[in-house]
Design brief:
Layout: E1 4-11, E2 15-18, H1 19-29, H2 34-45, E3 51-54, H3 80-103, E4 116-121, H4 130-138, E5 145-150, H5 156-170, E6 176-183, H6 194-202, E7 205-213, E8 222-232, E9 240-245, E10 248-253, H7 257-276, H8 278-281, E11 295-298, H9 303-313, H10 321-330, H11 337-348, E12 357-364, E13 368-377
Parallel strand pairs: 4-5, 4-6, 11-12
Antiparallel strand pairs: 1-7, 1-8, 2-3, 6-7, 8-13, 9-10, 12-13
Helix pairs in contact: 1-2, 3-4, 7-9, 10-11
């Protein structure tokens, strides 16, 4: 019995800030000289991002901050404890918005019918955590089975979907709610090295919720989870990393990451396809290099990452349009981002897309490369 993504809901904080405005905050926070600010502007222009959302208004301001000290140097810089207080204050509400958006967009499962809850986050921790807060706020049974997936970064949604898939295949009556919530912007780091400047140019806040079950809803596009394949590129373990420091969670994102993905993405795809078999995909051997999938849902870790994947898989920017759309409007929100991409794709699907395939990727610390093959069900 396959498992299906029945609905995806999303939410972002109310502070929607233009990328061009964030430059001014960053230049002031880093106390940059004119030449440094020009280089920063070039980095932001090349990001492919127009807007990012944050639980903080500060990134659109140059004074009157709400969280960071109201000084040119932002000193004393907020501690990890202060950032976790902010996470605890904001994460549950944002998660609830995503869940409500998800549940109201489908007619198969009532809130009281949810049997399992999987909570994903790498930007904050506390106990009792967001998972128990959701149980109480949604009025779920205390017997709902809860799983938390923490600190896996941008690819964590794949692990949550895998867990949900296993649950449903073992119990066809299960209704699984997956929530990915990240407040990346509360971990802003005030360092001027290239990797930190790059991370500060990309990350944003957001939440996504996914309802999965063994059921399908007539006349509506849903996605069957058909195959997963994961691989590691150990040579990139120092190029993408995430650790807890004294002043927040510190992201390491090297400009070399796209080159590592370039080397690994074709092999990852071939192994996924071979594992699933060409016959299952409806392909002949000589078509393998020409047609991998009908649609693509790629985590937009950055504009250059999207570009190298297109080169290696010989797909166009139009094939990859949903990733660019999410990157432009929201930036990189870590784990929820690929779910935003899948939601944008789902919105465009019609009855004629029944039985077509979707290929999805995400990447994170390790360097971990995750892939997923889905089949569209729209009868």
């Amino acid at each position: 019995m396959p498992s299906y993504i029945n609905a995806i809901g999303t939410a972002v904080p109310r502070h929607k800030i233009e990328q061009s405005s964030i430059i001014h905050f960053m230049a002031q926070a880093h106390q940059m000289q004119a030449e440094e600010k020009q280089r920063l502007k070039a980095l932001y222009r090349a990001s492919g991002i127009k807007y990012r959302h944050s639980v903080l208004p500060d990134f659109g301001l140059t004074e009157g901050f709400s969280f960071f000290p109201d000084s040119d140097s932002l000193e004393p810089f907020p501690s990890i404890g202060e950032r976790m207080v902010l996470y605890r204050k904001e994460a549950l509400g944002l998660s609830l918005q995503a869940v409500k958006d998800c549940l109201q967009s489908q007619g198969l499962v009532q809130t009281e019918d949810i049997t399992h809850l999987i909570m994903v986050s790498c930007t904050g921790m506390y106990a009792p955590g967001v998972d128990i807060g959701l149980v109480n706020a949604l009025g779920l049974s205390g017997s709902v089975q809860r799983t938390c997936i923490n600190f896996m970064g941008c690819y964590a949604a794949f692990n949550a979907l895998k867990a949900a898939d296993h649950i449903i295949r073992a119990n066809a009556q299960a209704n699984v709610l997956v929530i990915c919530t990240e407040l990346c912007t509360i971990h802003f780091q005030k360092k001027k090295d290239e990797d930190t400047l790059l991370a500060n140019a990309l990350f944003a806040d957001g939440s996504a919720a996914v309802l999965l079950s063994s059921q399908t809803e007539a006349g509506k596009a849903q996605l069957a989870l058909e195959q997963f394949y994961c691989d590691l590129a150990p040579e990139g373990k120092e190029d993408m990393a995430w650790q807890i420091g004294n002043f927040g969670f510190e992201m390491k994102l090297s400009a070399y990451v796209p080159e590592i993905i370039r080397k690994g993405i074709r092999q990852l795809t071939e192994r996924l396809v071979n594992q699933f078999s060409l016959q299952s995909l409806g392909l002949e051997d000589d078509e393998k290099a020409e047609k991998i999938a009908d649609y693509f849902a790629i985590h937009p870790g950055g504009k250059r990452i999207l570009s190298v994947i297109e080169e290696q898989l010989e797909i166009s920017t139009d094939d990859n349009r949903y990733a660019y759309q999410v990157l432009k409007e929201f930036g990189n929100m870590s784990s929820p981002t690929v779910l935003f991409v899948l939601k944008a794709l789902l919105k465009d699907l019609t009855l004629s897309d029944h039985d077509k395939q979707v290929l999805s990727f995400a990447f994170g610390p390790g360097l971990t490369l995750e892939s997923m093959l889905l089949r569209i069900h729209s009868l």
